[in-house]
Automatic annotation (TrEMBL):
Domain of life: Bacteria
Gene3D superfamilies, sorted: Mitochondrial biogenesis AIM24
PANTHER family: ALTERED INHERITANCE OF MITOCHONDRIA PROTEIN 24, MITOCHONDRIAL (PTHR38074:SF1)
Alphabetized InterPro entries for the sequence: AIM24 (IPR002838), AIM24_sf (IPR036983), Trp_RNA-bd_attenuator-like_dom (IPR016031)
The protein's name in its UniProt record: AIM24 family protein
Amino acid sequence: MRSAFFGNMEQGQQLPGHFALQNSKMLRVHLNGDVLARQGSMVAFQGQMDFDYEGSGGIGKFMKKALTGEGVPTMRVKGQGLLFLAHDADDIHLFYLENEGITVNGSNILAYDAHLQSDIQRVQGAGIAAGGLFNTTLTGTGWVALTTHGTPVMLDCGRAPTFVDGQSAVAWSSHLQVGVNRTFKVGALIGRGSGEAMQLAFQGQGFVLVQASEGPTVAPHTH
């Protein structure tokens, strides 16, 4: 699995393949065929393209989405030209999968190659203790573009056991061993602001992508 931070690249530099970072907040897709993208993420395009709602992929996947709340509405973009995608000016991180898999928080998916296989699966080891956590798994060979709230960090879990706040863990190598780590000090303020006493624990050879917060703050409703 290869990944790239915008900070290590010149603006507009193209990566191998047809996904590239126009800048840290915008993805540029050199389209010659089709790609799956988050609904409403198109900000501009040049060329000839068609945009269609992407169905659930069968009754099984539809039921998984309905029961778990996991996943994000997607659209299939077909055609030729340059496609520009973004979401709420979030930072964008790119992965290139080489016959492998990645587990992703569905709400962080911006776009991925249409030939990648996707499924909704329970996070192994988390179980009921983590609230029945479900994520989206993408497998195969191709590009994946994810959004993060703030500039993320990539942690190599092969260096040492790794523990991450569940709301800050955006994606990780699908073959990592995942469990739950409990804090023995009741009420210890170990998370970012919510005082969790539990984190996801990762072991094995692989990486976990961690965003700089637990996600954007939702403004209170005014009446």
